[in-house]
Design goal:
Blueprint: E1 2-11, H1 16-39, H2 45-60, H3 64-86, E2 101-104, E3 110-112, E4 116-121, E5 125-132, E6 146-154, E7 160-169, E8 180-185, E9 192-196, E10 201-204, H4 209-226, H5 229-263, E11 266-272, H6 278-282, H7 284-287, H8 295-311, E12 315-319, E13 339-340, E14 343-345, E15 352-354, H9 355-377
Parallel strand pairs: 8-11, 11-12
Antiparallel strand pairs: 1-5, 1-7, 2-6, 3-4, 4-5, 6-7, 8-9, 9-10, 13-14, 14-15
Helix pairs in contact: 1-2, 1-3, 2-3, 4-5, 5-8
The structure holds zinc ion.
Length: 387
């Protein structure tokens, strides 16, 4: 599986040369864009290059490499626009490019090391800039990652940053008869509960997140009743703070989940397939019970788990989420009243367990069923993630 990532590195000594390069580059992009817009339909990148190359080189003074990149990028943007038009999302419009963003191809336009990036600039050829490399970014320079098209961006704080895009091909664990599976339920009392084929389980609480989010909620309610402008600003501030907090918690919890999976030699992690359908039908019964772990935070946690799993060579399998909390994992009896808040007690066979753990066990079982089916068919199922 291909793992992709963007590493953000601050450029310590941006100069006028870099700023001017970005300006002229966006000028070139906007020129090419205007050509396509007035033409009234998409133009292939080769043809567009033939039309705009002379102007980019002579009038704007761009280097030949950039004069080739620009038509390719602009043609690509209009191709995407065309697809969006087909889906009825937007109308034909002129795409504009900001002077605060510049896309560069690896090797052709930039090269990079741990502490410097060399960029092709307009006046001085290739110029080297110092980058501030953070401890957690060092690992991406160990030679195992491939650098791809990246960006120089001026952020709102006025500083320039290099957004380095990287990718790596991670080997997947082979599926075998003896593979260990793990189901993860994102529950109401714990952020997540995991259960493996060997019946090892773990509860991931996420610290005091529940209390903190409740606090935020009551603060928001109080502010909303005020309705003043400053109250609105405060609400925005609080919700940004809460989002950052949730993000941190989701990072920590997803990391713990993957650590637990690795310790138990898990090959496949099962998650409920909530993408797309989660808002409408399947979740209705449980959603009201779910504490304030709102849908975006919930989706984010799934995304983080997925990403970290791929990194560890563990597959993710999404399973049907229907009745995972109401089904008895012993006798498969499904009933609403099997679950009473935190407790699961089967009305048919009398089996009792923590309700979230019972759900995680059901998810593990569904994941295993899919695994066995693929093994017997000698191929992976169509729903296998292709991330
Ligand atoms: Zn039962």
């Amino acid at each position: 599986m291909i793992l992709t990532k963007t590493v953000i590195l601050k450029i310590e000594n941006p100069d006028n040369n870099l700023v001017e390069t970005m300006q002229r580059y966006s000028e070139g992009m906007n020129h090419a864009s205007s050509v396509v817009f007035h033409y009234g339909k998409t133009i292939g990148s080769y043809k567009l290059q033939q039309i705009v190359y002379g102007y980019l080189r002579e009038t704007i003074g761009l280097k030949s490499q950039m004069s080739c990149n620009i038509p390719r990028q602009v043609a690509g943007c209009y191709k995407t626009l065309k697809e969006q038009i087909k889906e009825g999302k937007v109308n034909w419009k002129e795409i504009t490019f900001s002077p605060y963003s510049m896309t560069l191809s690896y090797k052709r336009d930039f090269s990079i090391s741990q502490d410097s990036v060399a960029i092709t600039t307009i006046n001085n050829g290739r110029k080297s800039y110092k980058i501030q490399n953070y401890d957690n970014a060092q690992q991406y320079f160990d030679g195992t990652w491939k650098f791809t098209a990246s960006k120089v961006l001026r952020h709102k704080d006025g500083n320039h940053y290099f957004h380095l895009s990287i990718e790596k091909d991670v080997p997947e664990k082979e599926l075998e008869e003896t593979s260990n599976y793990m189901g993860v339920d994102l529950g109401m009392n714990y952020l997540a509960v995991a259960s493996t084929t060997e019946k090892k389980c773990n509860f991931f609480a996420g610290g005091h997140i529940k209390d903190i989010r409740n606090q935020y909620k009551s603060m928001r309610t109080r502010l909303q009743s005020k309705g003043t402008l400053s109250a609105k600003r405060m609400i925005k501030h609080l919700s940004d703070k809460e989002k950052r907090l949730m993000r941190d918690v989701n990072h920590v919890v997803s990391k713990q989940i993957i650590k637990f999976a690795i310790e138990n030699n898990v090959s496949i992690i099962g998650l409920e397939d909530l993408k797309g359908i989660r808002e409408n039908r399947v979740r209705k019964t449980r959603r009201n019970n779910r504490y304030h772990h709102s849908s975006w935070a919930y989706r984010q946690l799934q995304d983080f788990i997925e990403y970290k799993a791929i990194e560890a060579g563990i597959k993710i399998q999404f399973v049907d989420p229907a009745h995972t909390s109401q089904e008895c994992n012993q006798c498969n009896h499904v009933a609403k009243n099997n679950r009473n808040r935190l407790n699961f007690a089967c009305k048919k066979c009398g089996y009792e367990n923590n309700a979230d753990l019972n759900a995680a066990m059901n998810i593990e079982k569904r994941t295993r069923d899919i695994g066995y089916t693929s093994l017997s068919q000698g191929c992976l199922s169509a729903t296998q993630t292709n991330a």
